Amino acid sequence: MMWVYFGLYLGLGAFAGLSAGLLGVGGGVIIVPVLAMLFQAQGMDSELVLHLAIGTSLASIVLTSISSVWAHHLQGAVLWAAVRRLAPGIVIGAWVGALLAHLLSTSTLRYLFGVFEVIVALQMALNIRPHAHRQLPGLWGLFAVGQVIGAVSSLLGIGGGTLSVPFLTWCNVSMGRAVATSAACGLPIAVAGSFGFVVTGWGLPILPAYTSGFVFWPAFVGIVLSSMYCAPIGAKWAHQLQPAQLKRVFAGVIFVLGMQVLLAA
Questions:
Q1: Could you tell me the residue range of the domain that residue 82 belongs to?
Q2: How far apart are CA 196 and CA 96, in angstroms?
Q3: CA 154 to CA 175: how far, in whole Å?
Q4: What b/e readout covers 18-48, taking b as 16+ CB neighbours within 10 angstroms?
Q5: Does position 23 have pLDDT exceeding 70, yes or no?
Q6: Angle 239-244-248 from CA coordinates, rounded to 5°
Q7: What is the pLDDT at residue 76?
Q8: Count of beta carbons in the 10 Å neighbourhood of residue 118
Q9: Is 112 exposed, middle or buried (0-12, 13-18, 19+ CB in 10 A)?
């Protein structure tokens, strides 16, 4: 059965990669709830499935974000000055988020993730975007914002784009630069967050085989292999299809997944 589930991991990574390339939406909002369902079907402990899904999602984002950041960097779109000021707070926040996830019960974590998914789905469906009202804050302001982005993203297993892109556009950063800078911020979130989930889950006797803490390596490999291949395809399709209509369909998928997580809480 492991090969059957590995095929499902490949399919999940392909869908997440296509979505990220096509719509600019981080794969975590899809990967975490689907992985939780797959882990449950594999007979993993119900008190661990969401923690394993979040830790594995963050680990997969490490590799996929590297290629994304490099592509944006070659286009000269990343605001590295902002990234350098956000990154220290992001790292600290990501560690805090991993620790908080370890302390929370599975039902509470499910509730938080489900509510977040529903909010993201509504924001996408209604195309709600903040209008520019100010400039980027100073060093300590960006440090504080980075802590919030890192903590929430690590807690929920996402790359942070759903938080950092609206913040950057609110601070008068163009959408293209906001997406590129957000992608760069996703790397420290994923590295620090996944490390935190490895540490907090290390040595638990009820973890399944092939895990390091809360990272399940067979799922990590399957997701990374297919998502890194499919993300450029999605980016190419973005210039050929109508992403506005597809975004509404994708919002519906996220809404259904969010409600499924809430009903299971």
A1: 2-264
A2: 8
A3: 24
A4: bbbbbbbbbbbbbbbbbbbbbbbebebeeeb
A5: no
A6: 135
A7: 84
A8: 18
A9: buried
Looking at residue 84, its pLDDT comes to 94
On average, the pLDDT of the chain sits at: 87
By the 8 A CB rule, do 2 and 218 touch?
yes
CA distances from 151 to 177, 200, 201, 234 (A): 23, 15, 17, 29
Nearest-CA neighbor of 100 among 216, 202, 197? 197
Structural domains counted in the chain:
1
The token pair that represents 2 in the structure block: 């492991």
Q: How far apart are CA 192 and CA 90, in angstroms?
A: 8
**Residue 211 β-bridge partners:** 216
AA identity, residue 185: C
**Which amino acid, one-letter code, is at 197?**
F
